[in-house]
Amino acid sequence: MKIDFTKSPDGLIPAIIQDAITKNVLMLGYMDQEAFDTTQKTQKVTFFSRSKQRLWTKGEESGNFLELVDIKNDCDNDTLLVSVNPVGPTCHKGTDTCWAEENTQTYGFLSTLEQIITSRKNDQENPDSYVASLFRKGINKIAQKVGEEAVETVIEAKDNDEELFLNESADLLFHYLILLQAKGYTLEDIVQTLQKRHR
């Protein structure tokens, strides 16, 4: 890996720290050649601290280390993207990130959809909500709907109408998300189960 430490007069380049699993940005630090070499040798992210004017391994005092997974260089060879597995909160103020955000896994629009389903579950008396009506009818009705949508998806998979297949697949996934919440679970629980199997 070719890194150009000469682009700044102090020999420091920015190192963006990203959670290897959630892909959330945790913090920004600076590395010189020695910090980079130490990071690779110890597999714990080490910076050059501008305030301390010395090498500083994140977590050396708190125990909240950043365990190295991967390092990538940008197109100009002067910025690093460092993938890590954080041990505890990253920020010295005790938060997951230096922007006071929770370092939680999200799944794009599916996470938005989960939030909407949660709001309907919490407002089951809403007469205008289809999802609320399913929660009112209970787990048996929700499970039945998942079964119906699964059968319809299988039927469309055997035909050549791609639009119908995609629509039935969307219906199946939507009702499955409702079933998960009816049972007290989320997509994250399913992902964790799959990850355990993968190991």
What keyword list fits this structure?
4-stranded mixed β-sheet; 2 domains; two-stranded antiparallel sheet; alpha+beta; Helix Hairpins
Brief characterization of the structure:
The chain is of the alpha+beta class.
Walk me through what this model shows.
Its EC number is 3.5.4.19, 3.6.1.31. It is an enzyme of class 3 (hydrolase). Residues 27-99 form the Phosphoribosyl-AMP cyclohydrolase domain. Keywords: Amino-acid biosynthesis, ATP-binding, Cytoplasm, Histidine biosynthesis, Hydrolase, Multifunctional enzyme, Nucleotide-binding. With 199 residues, the protein is of the alpha+beta class. The chain folds into 2 domains: 13-86, Roll (Ubiquitin-like (UB roll)), CATH 3.10.20; 109-198, Helix Hairpins (Orthogonal Bundle), CATH 1.10.287. 42% of the residues lie in helices and 19% in strands. The chain contains 6 helices and 6 strands. It has helices at residues 33-42, 109-121, 130-137, 139-157, 162-182, 187-198, and strands at residues 13-19, 25-31, 46-49, 54-57, 66-73, 80-86. Strands 2-1-6-5 form a 4-stranded mixed β-sheet, covered by helices on one side. A two-stranded antiparallel sheet has the order 3-4.
